[in-house]
């Protein structure tokens, strides 16, 4: 009984470490979703350059533009069109009111609304600087590094005798009880922690440019 409990505890601990390693790696390599304007959404009168200031955008991140359908639209344009607040005639606007654009190109990315004078007088435009995607860090929990070489001239020192402690039947019972508690706590803690790194997808259409 005691040996089976010890095996169960060992397996549980190994599984917990593996889940943590996977979750941390997924979080480090995952892309982020930004709600443009936060609670203001995509609306006239919001300072979007102030909103973007201090944020780091990477290739693969999502910009989500939320607005009342029909009130605005979203164009991704070049710098000249951005300055003039006039998208090219070939540019097809996004109009769903819940548009998500995946950032594909590093450098400056430009977005604007072409309805009426929302861009020119309502400041309904956004420029973000996109950085190249950062690779996920290597797994440092089990690096499996080679052992350093051992010199040949080290003196041979005999190991001191070690006597394993002897457990009585009552001691074994206490150990079994404690082992089950440890295993249960590890499982209860690791499941919500690891699942917290995984986020649900947005109920939106993602546009690739």
TrEMBL record:
Instruction: List this protein's GO terms for biological process.
Output: response to symbiotic fungus
Tell me which CDD domains the record gives. Answer: Phytocyanin
The record gives the membrane topology as: Single-pass type I membrane protein
Q: Which residues form the Phytocyanin domain?
A: 32-132
Q: What is its main location?
A: membrane
Q: Which PROSITE patterns match?
A: PHYTOCYANIN
Transmembrane residue ranges: 7-28, 177-198
* An annotated Gene Ontology molecular function: electron transfer activity
Locations listed in the record: Membrane
Q: Name one GO cellular component term.
A: plasma membrane
Q: Name one Pfam family in it.
A: Cu_bind_like
> Keyword annotations for this protein?
Copper, Disulfide bond, Electron transport, Glycoprotein, Membrane, Metal-binding, Signal, Transmembrane, Transmembrane helix, Transport
Q: Which PANTHER family match?
A: BLUE COPPER PROTEIN, PHYTOCYANIN DOMAIN-CONTAINING PROTEIN
Name of this chain's protein: Phytocyanin domain-containing protein
Q: Identify the species of origin.
A: Escallonia herrerae
């Amino acid at each position: 009984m005691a040996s089976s409990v010890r095996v169960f505890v060992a397996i549980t601990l190994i599984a917990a470490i593996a889940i943590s390693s996977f979750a941390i790696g997924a979080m480090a390599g995952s892309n982020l979703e930004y709600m443009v304007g936060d609670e203001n959404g995509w609306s006239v009168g919001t300072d979007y350059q102030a909103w973007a200031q201090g944020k780091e955008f990477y290739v693969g991140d999502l910009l989500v533009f939320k607005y009342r359908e029909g009130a605005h639209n979203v164009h991704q344009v070049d710098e000249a069109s951005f300055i003039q607040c006039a998208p090219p005639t070939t540019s097809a606007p996004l109009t769903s009111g819940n548009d998500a654009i995946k950032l594909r190109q590093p450098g400056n990315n430009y977005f604007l609304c072409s309805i009426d004078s929302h861009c020119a007088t309502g400041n309904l435009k956004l420029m973000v600087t996109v950085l190249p995607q950062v690779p996920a860090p290597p797994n440092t929990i089990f690096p499996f590094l080679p052992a350093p070489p051992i010199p040949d001239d080290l003196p041979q020192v005999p190991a001191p005798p070690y006597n394993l402690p002897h457990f009585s039947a009552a001691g074994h019972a206490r150990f079994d009880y404690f082992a089950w508690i440890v295993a249960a706590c590890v499982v209860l803690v690791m499941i919500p922690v690891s699942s917290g790194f995984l986020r649900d997808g947005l109920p939106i259409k993602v546009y690739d440019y």
